[in-house]
Amino acid sequence: MFLAALSFAYFAKALSGSYMKSTMTQLERRFDISSYLIGIIDGSFEVGNLLVIAFVSYFGAKLHRPKIIAVGCILMSFGTFLIAMPHFLIGRYNIETSVRSSVNSTNNLSPCLNNPQLSISFSTVGCVRESGVPMWIYVFLGNVLRGIGETPVQPLGIAYIDDYAESENSALYIGCVQTISVIGPVFGYLLGSLCAKIYVDIGYVDMETVTISPGDARWVGAWWLGFLITGTITLISAVPFWFLPKSLPVPVDKHDTSCTPEQTRFIKDSPTMEHKFRPEEPASLHQMAKEFVPTLKSLLGNPVYIIYLCVTIIQFNSLIGMVTYKPKYIEQHYGQSASKANFLMGVINIPAVALGMFSGGVVMKKYKLDIMGAAKFTFGTSLLGYFLSLFFLAMGCDNSKVAGITVSYGGYELPSEPSLFSDCNSDCLCSGREWDPVCGENGLTYVSPCLAGCTSSSGSGRNMVFENCRCVSLPSAPTENLTVTLGQCPREDSCDKIFPYFLALSVVSSFIISLGGTPGFVLLIRFIKPELKSLALGIHTLATRTLAGIPAPIYFGAIIDTTCLKWGYNLCGGRGACRIYNTSAYRIVYLGLALGLRTVSFFFCILGFALFKRHIKREEKNALANGNAEMESLSKEENSSTHCEQFVLASDCSPDRETHL
Fold first, then answer.
1. Are residues 601 and 63 in contact, defined by beta-carbon separation less than 8 angstroms?
2. By C-alpha distance, which of 546, 532, 65 is closest to 292?
3. Does an H or E element contain 440, and which?
4. Of these four, 351, 362, 438, 559, which has the most CB atoms within 10 Å of its CB?
5. What residue stretches are annotated with the Major facilitator superfamily (MFS) profile domain (predicted)?
């Protein structure tokens, strides 16, 4: 029952966390902020963990763990609802466009003669209306609260399973929980895909007046709707934990050959062993606080544990940076909509990770891998996945052809600094800040109808066509009336052909890397002393989230921002979200940074193996010496029931003492 409850809690937290990842581009556009600020919002979840995780891991292990997990789930749900709140406080979404009013098919609008005073007054009114505390602050605070609530779920839940499950089954149980936690993102990204298709102000605006499609860089989906759904599911996940006990009977391992059947029966029947099966008396807070610092010193004095932390911190930096911005990379590099990018992440990529993590647990159980075998298996799968990931660098697409940004107005390579203004639009009162892309008959995208030199238009809504565009030219018909339509031009066919190979390689590499996920996690809890297990898990989570979860989205976002070619502007005239990136530079900095971090981690792995082998040899010598001393003591008083009881009490034939015996 605890395994089922914990699996559902893992599913709920993974669902809301992955949905948060899937809405990054939606939040960026809705609040007109850069990728750098989106990284800060994403890292705020880890800030919440940082505030309480060490104390929750240590004190929570001595208190009622299921109820503490229940409280955490409730806090997570409240944080998720807080994230959705700005939608109900902020005004309607204003699409950045050079066309200030809707027109019908009988009107004739001349973009080239647009009145700049109208644009200025509109922006000023909007700026006054939305002045005050930035709405993204509520998203930041809600994510912090989510982080605080999620804190007890992993360290207390996993330690609870490992304490009360048979030793041979604990790896499989942990693999099941981890697998469920990866199934959650499948539904999270699918929910993100569904909500990204729905317009942000659905039900409040006439969709006929919306001139953009889901593939447009200005489109914002109903991001708030998914948070209401995930918050409700997280709240439900808290219910089962209120009815679970503080502790369970400790199982006696049936395959534990260190105890004879007589000794096993003696453990259960002897009156002196009654205390082994009584509920533990709650420890005083003063005593727990007094023991905290020495316990922490003992844990951090383990060099193998420190190297393990270094490796996971570096690899988590790479992993978190890639996962956070992968949907955005698919959007910008391969020209896919946010909805399709999230759909592909949920249907193709995440199931491969789930299958890999479950398969890793099965392999460890079937082949009975010891801790050294688990370490080698984890390292091998990570290295193979790394080599496969190098091929991503070769799967690139060219930049979109945008006049004045990536190519000249004649369609040729830019000879010098890009400029949005040319002789063909010099007579128009165009704004260089607008982003209202139109596609010309010559296959070039223009930043706005005004910058395309268009002098008239027809139609309305998404069917609007701009005519007599002086900047649009065809070699076969240089003087004809050439038109442009709303939206960017589609990418070249060569990019569409590369995209399926990118998806296939992504699936294979994700599966191979995740094979080592469960053995690597079991490795952590097996080379640590039983009494330090919960604290070790808590410090591991604290370190990875503090040094990877917080900074990785921020510096990945900041580096991605450097590749922006055209920034949008908010209503107050400040810099908003990026509208178009240099795709080649984006690919190099995004993939290069992620692969570079993983390269560094492998050097720490080599050092870790050397220390790990030394650690195992030292433990074997200590176990052999202790075993010989106990056997000598026993041989002096054969058939003595008193001494037999002392032996059983000393050996405590539980799974945690198996290695010692």
1. no
2. 532
3. strand 438-440
4. 438
5. 2-613
